[in-house]
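Re: duplicated header lines in exported structure tokens

Our pipeline writes sequence and tokens for each protein into one text file. With two proteins the header for the second block appears twice in some exports. Here is an export where it did not happen, for reference. First protein block:
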Amino acid sequence: MDKFHVFTFFGGHDGQHLIYRAFNVVVHDNIFVFRRLRILPVRALQTLRHRLRSYVAAAVQAALDGVAQIDVFNRQESYLQRGYELIDRLHGYSPCEISLYALSDEDQLRASLAESALVVNTTTVGYPDDPGCLLTADMLRPELIVADLVYNPRNTELIQLARSCGCKTVDGAGPFVQQAAIAERLWLGREMPVDFAMETFFAD
């Protein structure tokens, strides 16, 4: 049973879970999705892989936190319908405008990047088994904040490219460690030493 099917067995959901329709952590009688990512309250652009995983949590939380507009680019067009269903559910909880596009639409990608303050890579592109970078240098500008949820390697091709273009960057180590810390708090009732984990596993 996956996290989408387990949703049907529980009641008393809050807004985020009714939108997301999936759980990552079940703790006694309380339900909590630990992939909550805090996104700056500005227009955002997200690229995603074909599965509704990290991008869903990031987009939903960003919308609930007050982001005005999000453009989502999907690598597999056949999965766009699930994205439209997510948007329909989200409209009942947030006025955020979310638009879905195919990642193959390079003109739209460039247009969205030109108007965005933040771009977040929530795909697997950048991991050792899926190397590469979805953006090119001419798509970036110094004012753009570039975040990559890939944490191994921490210094992905996207992060390197963004830094070379003068962009502020956020790598995937922080979100990875923070969601582990939340899970440990929920499951074991104790605080994980976040600083120690960062120094041990992600020291430069």
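Second protein block, exported in the same file:
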Amino acid sequence: MKSNKKTYNYIIEKPGRSYELARKMIPVLISWAQAKLSPQYYSTLSKTTGHSTPRIGYQLGVIGEIFDQLKEESGEDVPYLNALVVNKGSKRPSDGLGAVIDGYDNVDVDKQKAIANVANEKAYNYTKWQWVLEALGLLPFTGDIEDKVRNGSYAHSASEGPLHNALKKYVLVHPNLVGVVNPIKSETEYNLLSGDWKSHTNLTHPGKYFRPSKTIYY
């Protein structure tokens, strides 16, 4: 396998609107995979990247081709991100996913959902997304989730919803948002002696813990 220190930005630095959108979409998709977000709508990805229409099947195909070339040239088994985006009506990827994942277009709905779930689990569990960004010369995307962290739009709640859970996981994998570099311990919940628990993200510096004021509570 070739050294992962090599960059492959030439794969993505091609002219045209589709490659321009791919350069915007890949960091967003990677941030969703890192936060283990449930699949998002095509319209959400379009809006997040400033695209005027939810019809982004061609651009997602381009992303699949970029990953194919990256995998071939680097030797790194990078998972596909295409199944992280779904149709608002069917709640599953369109049949165009078959251009990236063999067999998807020619099976029934239940099998399509199973194929998409397997693809997404690979994306959620992949640990080298930062390398992918660096290899392609892209910066991490923090816009939609970081904005919610900073402006407090994640409100306190008696129960934990999917966005709340995603926020905790996102801060856990992006500790730099709260000024922590290379934490030696991370946790999202802490049991109190009273038997209650606090929902938070606690990041431990080498040799010391945050003071309570440095712990992010939700």
